[in-house]
Design goal:
This protein has eight helices and three strands. A hairpin with a 6-residue loop joins strand 2 and strand 3. Helices cover 45% and strands 3% of the residues. The protein is globular. The protein is mainly α and 231 residues long.
């Protein structure tokens, strides 16, 4: 890995020679901020992931670019979560999903798999759909299938979502039985929005206020349900 002064791109995953802009690789405990440490961790993990998925294993053509870019984006957050679980980095992954949903809602949106006629066409799909929607879809598959299926090893004590799990804290289970509710899209792993009816929305609002939901689920529901409630 090499840091290059004023490198035009943030980083580039050349096979066996990853090049970074200095600010995206170099870090000082005395001068750098915690935010810079976090950004650098994600960027380095992203580019190293490309050494396997994108270099050693390469898509047959640009039609499947989203698998290349989406995978590296997703695994960069997974690795960061393993290295620094105290950052709760998956809560920040929600911003990626939100950006992908924003572009996906526009008329000029496109599928994550796009037929590319020539090399120049690849540049046209290097956007939030390929990176952010692509990574969110992979994250959704991870949540649905479970880590064992996708052959991933999470940090010790991590919870695997198998499609039937709940973000309800165990210690609060008995307290919450009296006000039954269902939170769809656990840990916001799915690339979709959920609309709740008024009755369920009211129950979920109480669950948020009483801190029954995980940080990720609370953030995912905030704009729909609890703008007027303290988190």
């Amino acid at each position: 890995m090499v840091a290059v002064f004023e490198f035009s791109s943030g980083a580039m995953e050349n096979f066996r020679l990853i090049v970074y802009r200095e600010s995206h690789m170099l870090y000082s405990d005395l001068k750098s901020t915690d935010k810079r440490k976090q950004i650098n961790t994600i960027v380095v993990a992203h580019e190293v992931a490309h050494q396997w998925f994108g270099n050693l294993i390469t898509m047959g053509w640009g039609t499947h670019l989203w698998l290349n870019k989406g995978f590296a984006t997703w695994i960069s957050y997974m690795v960061t979560n393993i290295l620094f679980p105290e950052w709760q980095i998956w809560t920040q992954f929600l911003q990626l999903s939100a950006d992908g949903l924003s572009l996906n809602a526009l008329q000029q949106s496109h599928l994550i798999k796009v037929e590319v006629d020539d090399a120049h066409g690849i540049d046209q799909i290097l956007d939030d759909i390929s990176y952010k929607k692509g990574s969110a879809v992979i994250r959704m598959l991870q949540g649905y299938l479970g880590n064992d299926i996708v052959q991933l090893t999470q940090g010790k004590g991590s919870r695997t979502s198998n499609g039937n799990s709940s973000s309800l804290k165990e210690k609060d289970q008995e307290q919450c039985d009296e006000t039954l509710w269902v939170k769809v899209n656990v840990e916001q792993s799915g690339f979709y929005r959920v609309i709740y009816d008024d009755e369920l929305a009211a129950r979920l609002r109480k669950a948020v206020v009483k801190n029954y939901l995980s940080a990720t689920d609370k953030l995912g529901m905030y704009y729909m349900l609890v703008k007027d409630c303290p988190l």
